Amino acid sequence: MDKNTAYLPENPEESIIKHPLDEIVRQGAKEMLKKALEIEINSFIEKFQYLLDDEGNRSVVRNGYNNARKIVTGAGQLEIETPRVDDRVLGKHDEMRFKSTLIPPYLRRTANINELIPVLYLVLS
């Protein structure tokens, strides 16, 4: 191994010493994010509550959750299930379909982590 090459484990989570306080912070962040997503989706659905089908049922409704995905945040790695909405009818009304402002579709790590990675690279080099 070259002396200028840093050894990085395949799974960085394995090399981190886990502290109970860190786990509490991670769980708290996960719960807060879950509640914020629920508020975001509920307000979106309420905005279109006037759209009804021929039988009088709402056209914009909740539709379960997307598959869980991992997002790296300042609080650590969080596994998040984002809510889904059946809002296909909005295309006919020239309205924007639901897209979470908190967790964009392809987000894997937050912006502050993206800024931290080059610094860590320089420190480990």
SS-based class: alpha+beta
Characterize the main sheet: 2 strands, antiparallel
- How much strand? 15-25%
Number of helices: 3
> Unreliable runs, pLDDT <50, ≥5 residues?
none
Number of strands: 4
**Portion in helices:** 25-40%
**CA gyration radius, whole angstroms:** 20 Å
Strands in their spatial order, largest beta sheet: 1-4
Element pattern in H and E: HHEEEEH
Give the overall shape, derived from the CA principal axes. Answer: elongated
- What is the terminal-to-terminal distance? 13 Å
Our count of domains comes out at 1
- How would you name the oligomeric state of the polypeptide chains in this document? single chain
Mean pLDDT score, rounded? 77
Describe the fold and architecture.
- There is one protein chain.
- The chain has 125 residues and is α+β, with helices and mostly antiparallel strands.
- The protein has one domain (18-124).
- Helix content is 37%, strand content 15%.
- The chain is built from three helices and four strands; from the N terminus they run ααββββα.
- The chain has helices at 12-15, 20-47, 111-124, and strands spanning 61-65, 69-73, 76-80, 83-86.
- The protein has a two-stranded antiparallel sheet with strand order 1-4. Strands 2-3 form a two-stranded antiparallel ribbon.
- β2 and β3 (76-80) form a beta hairpin.
- The longest helix is centred in the first third of the chain and has 28 residues, at 20-47.
- It is elongated and about 70 Å long.
- The chain starts with 11 loop residues before the first helix and ends with a helix.
